Amino acid sequence: MSEEKKITPAENGNEFNRRAFFVKLGLGSLSIAAAGTAAFSYQFLSPNVLYEPSPIVNAGRPENYAVDSVTLDVNSGIYLIHAQEGFFALSAICTHLGCLTAWKPELGEHGIIACPCHGSKFYVRDTGKTPGEKIEGPAPKPLPWLQTSLSDEGDLMVDRSKQIDPMKFLRV
Ligand code: FES
């Protein structure tokens, strides 16, 4: 005669609780995996774009710059120079290791551009030399001339992404 094992109501309840626990655990794991997949897919599908500021700088009205003035725009890293021959723009970024240079009107006969990092110095005006040319220091190249133009509204525009040959002045 076989003996049937009787399951008590208390044992039946434990079994149910255990099963419900494992079902919940499985569902939780699936949810976490699905969330991870969704996050990865979103990252994979969204464009990998680097938003850089425009290289074109609006330097404002030409009449704001006196003749023989040298103006450093620290934010955009350019000099706007109003020479007797017209306007031109120089990069203010030192060609040695990329430090921001400074306009020193008190140095030299007519002022110079000087780099605070390793002492490179550059001509700016009234010297018979090409503005941007190196005077001394470790900088391997002159400060580049940048393309300048007038907008339709008459503002001075400097394109930091376009270097031009020296001594090309913008006459306004
Ligand atoms: S970064 Fe200007 S001299 Fe070195």
Written overview of the protein:
It is a single chain. With 172 residues, this protein is of the alpha+beta class. 22% of the residues lie in helices and 28% in strands. The chain has one helix at 9-45; strands at residues 56-60, 69-73, 78-83, 86-91, 102-104, 112-114, 121-122, 134-136, 145-150, 156-164. The strands form 2 sheets. It has a 6-stranded antiparallel β-sheet, with no helix packed on it. The chain is elongated. The model has no long low-confidence stretch (mean pLDDT 89). Residues 94, 96-97, 99, 115, 117-120, 137-139 line the site of FE2/S2 (inorganic) cluster.
CATH superfamily of the largest domain: Rieske [2Fe-2S] iron-sulphur domain
Number of domains in the coordinates? 2
How would you classify the helix and strand content by structural class? alpha+beta
Strand content: 25-35%
How many helices? Answer: 1
- The tally of strands reads 10
Low-confidence stretches: none
Give the ligands present. Answer: FE2/S2 (inorganic) cluster
- The helix content is 10-25%
The end-to-end span amounts to 116 Å
Largest sheet: 6 strands, antiparallel
| CATH fold field value of the largest domain | Rieske Iron-sulfur Protein
Average pLDDT reading: 89
Gross geometry: elongated
Which CATH-level-2 architecture of the largest domain?
A: 3-layer Sandwich
Radius of gyration, CA atoms, in whole angstroms: 34 Å
